[in-house]
Amino acid sequence: MSLKALSAKDAAALDKDLMDVNIGGWSLDQLMELAGLSVSQAVWRMHPLSQGKKILVVCGPGNNGGDGLVAARHLKHYGYEPTVYYPKEGKNELYQRLKTQLNTLAIPFTDDMTSELSRSDLLIDAIFGFSFGGPLRDPFGSIITQIENAKIPVLSVDAPSSWDINSGPPSSGPGANFMPQALISLTAPKPCVKFFKGRHFVGGRFLTTAIAQKYGLVCPAYEGIDQVVEVFKDGDGEFRYAPKEESKY
């Protein structure tokens, strides 16, 4: 089953349709909750508790960062020990409520990414999503350089931060050599995924048939209660759903 890449323009239009009261009827809170749940399930798949519980979640100021905050909450309930680095907080009330939820679970926030990185087992890159257009502004250049040089596995949310949504990694500067070990594409892969070489998941089990058809998407066959599905790149460079018996992982 081939999976179509979704352009930034179409991704924004699709989100608008999902939140249109007469089309999708979803709220931003609901979509962010399901996105963050998908991220947490991708972590469970790629990095089981036996491989280390300490997860550093690096969040940006927008919806991608919100997905990371939600994921941190779910990971805590799974038995992981998440810590959040949130250098530029979102101003929307939604993000403040997500922070409160983490505080009530005693999930720590850190101001020292370098020290926290040295004692973490996995990093979630939830800084920038499909709407990122560059250039990088402080403090994110140095943050992405640290992630790029990290000695632990990295899972990027929707797109590796610093990558152009169409043309992939920048030609120079922070992110030029950034290749996370895993990526979770939300709703559908974005065009930059053709440059990605790691383990790839798709999450976002909320599309209706009508909306999927409008954007030419084929929803993968999620199994049971799973919110994520693993995909692979075939010899023609197409991304396809990998049933369990065919998965190479």
Task: Describe the protein in words.
- This protein has 249 residues and is α/β, with parallel strands linked by helices.
- It has one domain (8-241): YjeF N-terminal domain (Rossmann fold, 3-Layer(aba) Sandwich).
- It has helices at residues 8-18, 28-46, 63-78, 93-104, 113-118, 140-148, 209-214, and strands at residues 2-3, 54-59, 81-85, 109-110, 122-126, 154-157, 182-186, 199-203, 228-233, 239-241.
- The relative contact order is 0.18.
- GO terms for molecular function: metal ion binding; NAD(P)HX epimerase activity; nucleotide binding.
- This is NAD(P)H-hydrate epimerase.
In short:
Its cofactor is K(+). The chain has 249 residues and is an alpha/beta fold. 32% of the residues lie in helices and 17% in strands.
